[in-house]
Amino acid sequence: MTISRKIGIMLTRSSWIRKMFEEGAKLKAKYGADKVYDFSLGNPNLEPPPIFKEKLLEIINSSQPNSHAYMPNVGYPHVRKAVANYISKESKVDISENEIIMTCGAAGGINVALKAILDPGDEVISPAPYFAEYGFYVDNHGGLFKTVFSNPDFTLDIDRIESTITEKTKAVIINSPNNPTGQVYSEESLSELGGLLREKSAKLNRTIYLISDEPYRKIVYDDTKIPYIYDIYEDSIIVHSYSKDISIPGERIGFIAISPKAQYKDDLFNAMAHANRILGFVNAPALIQKVVAEIQGITVDISEYKRKRDMLCEGLRSYGYNFIVPKGAFYVFPECPIPDDIRFVQGLVEENILAVPGSGFGAPGYFRLAFCVSDETIINAIPGFNRVMERY
Ligand code: PLP
């Protein structure tokens, strides 16, 4: 074998999202793309807001010498300043550009954060269901990924998290609004988590970081509020991305915002600058950094996702599917009517519907539907959901 054994194993177990993507490509070739209802990927179907392209063109046309040159590994100072100003305003906590690192999306940001804090054998805990890539990211940096099942409504089970913390725990990763469940963690439960981490860090005499992965912070419905964790737990790190809220996942842009209250924030900043470099990102893309600096707070039209959510949820509910209505992000995570989620998702494939089994997110017995798709996809898929439900 010419590739590493480890990667070989990863490839054979390849993620369910990828598997469904490949399944979908085959179905589309056979039946035509409009006859396949693909809910498998969190690839936003809305176009970026028009101002994104306007600013992009403006910046290209006013290009100065060195516009495409290397820069500090943490990103342009003026861009980090614009991000810091925006978060300070939103969170009511003063953050400076010296706490901001521009990254290649949230994926890049999480890898940079983990690289900066993990020693081999350190443990990272995440509540399940969880974003499937976390396990790979933790492994990338020699860590051990440990998952903890959440309450039945997918809220945090603090007791379970407590019993999973050991003297090797280095971080807890949370994601709210959550992929795959659409659940949002309340301020009370986050405060409980903060209290637990504070107590355990003191007892174990090591800092346990709280990494809050927040690519869906701005995609929320029904006046849902996402608390900022800086006031809740000092040793916290926010990872944000513009992939979802302005629909630019291919541009690879996001940032890390270290809590200004973190004990070792300067060390963290320097370690992350170095990690960004040696992981091969070097820096986040120059042009798009400059664009996002100009459009802080801008999003796609979130009411479009709310409409899609309501359409899909109404259809699923009328056919007897059981699920919590997502408060944020663009996923719904219903229970399968049979325990075997893989068999159930196969049943959906027979109706040309692509979903991802809950097993891929550490939650067998469920399936995930990404509703960042066209209205026609939802409307045309609904009868298929009904037939599969009747069959089981
Ligand atoms: N974290 C979560 C929870 C996600 O759902 C995703 C993408 O789907 C990412 C991180 C990675 O996003 P990015 O495109 O910003 O790397």
Descriptive overview:
This protein is an alpha/beta fold. It has 13 helices and twelve strands. It has helices at 5-12, 16-31, 50-61, 77-91, 105-117, 134-140, 158-164, 187-204, 265-278, 286-294, 302-318, 341-349, 375-391, and strands spanning 37-38, 100-103, 123-128, 144-149, 169-175, 209-213, 236-241, 254-258, 331-332, 353-354, 356-357, 367-370. It has a seven-stranded mixed beta sheet, sandwiched between helices. Strand 3 (123-128), helix 6 and strand 4 (144-149) form a beta-alpha-beta unit. Helix 3 crosses helix 10 and helix 5 (105-117) packs across helix 9 (265-278). Pyridoxal-5'-phosphate is lined by residues 42, 105-107, 131, 175, 179, 213, 215, 241, 243, 249, 254.
Please sum up the structure shown:
This protein has 392 residues and is α/β, with parallel strands linked by helices. The protein contains 13 helices and twelve strands. The mean pLDDT is 96.
Bound molecules: pyridoxal-5'-phosphate
Topology as H/E string?
A: HHEHHEHEHEHEHEEEHHHEHEEEH
DSSP helix count?
13
Task: Give the CA-CA distance, first to last residue.
Answer: 43 Å
Spatial extent as radius of gyration:
21 Å
The main pleated sheet reads as: 7 strands, mixed
Q: Based on CA inertia axes, which overall geometry fits? A: globular
Strand content: 5-15%
Which structural class matches the secondary elements? alpha/beta
**Average residue pLDDT:** 96
Binned, the helix content reads: 40-55%
The strand order across the widest sheet is 2-8-7-6-5-3-4
Uncertain spans, ≥5 residues at pLDDT below 50?
Answer: none
Total count of strands = 12
